[in-house]
Amino acid sequence: MIYTRREIGKLALLALPATRSWAAKPNSVFGGVQVGINAPYSFHNIPGGADDILNYMTQTNISAAELRLQPVEAFLKAPTPWTAPRGGGRGTPRAPLTPEQKAEQSAVADAQQKWRLSQSMDGFKAFRKKYEDAGVLIQIVKYDGINTMSDDVVDYCFQVAKTLGAYAISCEIPVSQTQRLGQFAAKHKMMVGYHGHGNLTDPEAFGRLAAWEQAFTYSKFNGANVDIGHFFAATGTSPAEWIKAHHERVTHVHIKDRKANNGPNMPFGQGDTPIKEILLMMKKEKYKFQATIEMEYPVPEGSTLLAEIAKCVRYCQDILA
Fold first, then answer.
1. Global pTM?
2. Which helix (H) or strand (E) holds 192?
3. pLDDT at residue 91, rounded to an integer
């Protein structure tokens, strides 16, 4: 689907702050398919606080999120995570941490764990209400490094996701470590979507279809976050049949457009990824998992990030209408 210059101009207006307000709740359910966005990941290089995310989603008419934990905890005044000092530039390896930096890293991690394990769920209930009052559902919560967390903190992660209203959590971890996490998923009766990239040779990477199928054997709550852009770019084939065969295990699909043969990310409609096929299949089969936009292509000169995201939403809407 290629837009004319006039249509592109109209779509750009969708992202202007004046076109939407907090009173106008977003609605990105099109043809029965819930279109969402990976946040704050897709809102890169602009402020990514909880209120910022809500504002962006309202402006771009997106009513569901795959939301990372960081803006939630930051809003609730959790200790700021420790970050390593930057290296000398792109391609320059970081220097090893000094003993003082290691001690600081450990102290921050201890404070963060203590904070997490002392929390009631009341703050998270209020956070959920804040988002839902604005018209946004938190359907998936993404956790970085959940495979490195203690058992108590993994339990906390599932409790937080349930409290926020999510039907699944998502993460990017080695295949062999999905056995442990799958046990927690079964305990909490909540699906885990493992994100797929394009590595087809690493036995620990979710790229090979057999990697997901291996994880499935460990727990009936182990699922697949199918990134259709990575899938198609790496394999040259549509993920439609695999999704259809394993739809009960699919937690959500990441929607992006890429050129074939591991080509670059492109504006929606200008790449080779079978976005239309996947969305229409979701509509026909009445799949309830989220179609999650990931904004990864470069913002064209003269446009803005929010204008481009609004175009992505409209592209999905036009297919599903």
1. 0.88
2. strand 191-195
3. 62
Contact predicate 195/170, CB 8 Å: yes
User: 287 in a domain, yes or no?
Assistant: yes
The three-point CA angle 34-52-84 to 5° equals 105
The per-residue pLDDT for range 196-238, each reduced to its tens digit, is: 886 777 888 887 788 999 999 999 999 999 999 999 998 889 9
Strand partners, 25: none
**How many domains does the chain divide into?**
1
Q: Would residue 213 count as lying in a domain?
A: yes
Question: Helix, strand, or coil here: 241?
Answer: helix
The amino acid that residue 187 corresponds to is: K
20 falls within a domain:
no
Residue 189: which CATH number? 3.20.20.150
- Here the tokens at position 191 are 């699906």
pLDDT (0 to 100) of residue 172: 94
Alpha helices in 120-239 (DSSP H): 122-133, 151-163, 178-188, 209-218, 228-235
